[in-house]
# Entry
Amino acid sequence: MTKGKVAVALSGGVDSSAAALLLKEAAYEVMGIHMRLWNSPRFDYQAHRAENICRILDIPYHQVDLQKEFEFCVVDYFCQEYQQGRTPNPCVACNQHIKFGLLLDKALSLGADYLATGHYAKVEHSRDGHRLLKAADARKDQSYFLYTLTQEKLGHVLFPLAEHSRDEVKQMAKQARLPTAARSSQDICFISQRNYGAFLSQRFSTLPGDIVDTQGRKLGQHRGIAFYTIGQRHGLGLASGKPLYIIRIEPERNRIVLGHEKELYSQKLTAQKLNWISGKAPREPITAKAKIRYKSKEAETVLSFRNDSVDVHFTQPQKAVTPGQAIVFYKDGELLGGGTISNAKIKMQNVKIQSKNEKILPFELSV
# Structure
C-alpha cells in the first residue's frame, strides 16, 4: 500500500531527481512532471534529462507547457521592476505563481495528493496546521525563496531533501545512476550567459540620466536605471579617489545617487506585499531574525505592524538594503513569513563597515 500519489517537479538536475528517488523508496506512488517555461535549447535539454530520469526510475513522465504564464508572471515582472528602479527576485515570483501555483494545480488535476520539489526546506504537517522550517543543511537551505507559501498549499507540498546534505544527495543520485550535474547557483533560467543587461535591452528601451552625489552634484551619466542596483560599485564609468557605491536609485528623476560605503547601511526598512505562513499576521510587535537577501546573515530585528506593511528595526545596521528584494523572518528556525522591501532609512553614523569582499548581485536566485 502506498503512502499516496505524488508528482515530483523535475528540472533535470540532481536535487529534483534525488527527491523522486527518495519518494519512490519511501513507498509513494511517484510520477515526474516537467515545466516547459522557455523556448530555448537549454530547456529542450532539461526536458530530455527529466524524461530520462523518469525512465531510469520507471515512473510516468508528464510535461506541462507554462511558457505564456511564465512570461507574464516572471519575465514581465522581472523587467518591470528594473524599469522602476527596483531589484526583482524572479525565483520568489516563480515559486509563488508557477511552481506552487499553476504546477501544483496541474499535479492535483492529475490525481496527485502532493507536489514535491528538490528544494532544501522542511514542512511539518499536523492537525493544527503546517509549519515551514529550515533544512538540515544550513548551507543549502532555500526557505528564503518559499515565504509566499500558504497553509492550503503547504498541505499538498513535500520537500524530500529536508534532512539531507547536498553531498548526500549527490552520492545517492550517483549510486542510482541518475544525472548528478547541477545548474550554476547564479543562473537566471531564461537568460543565457548571465547577461541580464543585454536581455533587458532587448525587452525595452532605456533613457540615460544623471549620476549624482548626495549633494545633487553631477558626477556622470548612466545608461538607464534598469542596469543598476543598490550597493553596486563597479561598471559606473567614473574615476574617484575613494570608492563610491550606488546608495539610491530615483526613478522619478531618472537618476542614480552615489555615496561612500558607510552610506549603504540602514537600520530600518519597510516591507509590503506580506505573507505569513500561519495565515495570520502578528498583532503586536515581535522580535525575529531577518534576512534581506538569500546569502546574507540573519539579523536581529523588532517588527512593528501596520495594516498592509511592517516596519523592520535592526539591532545592527544592514548593508545595501535593496527595494524590490525579499525580506523573510525566522523564529527558532521556523519561517514566519516575509514580504518585499519597499524602502530603507539610511544610517550614516557609528556604522561598523563589513567586509569589502561582500558581493552584491543584481538579483537573487534559489538554485
The chain has seven helices and 17 strands. The first helix runs from residue 14 to 25. The chain has a mean pLDDT of 91.
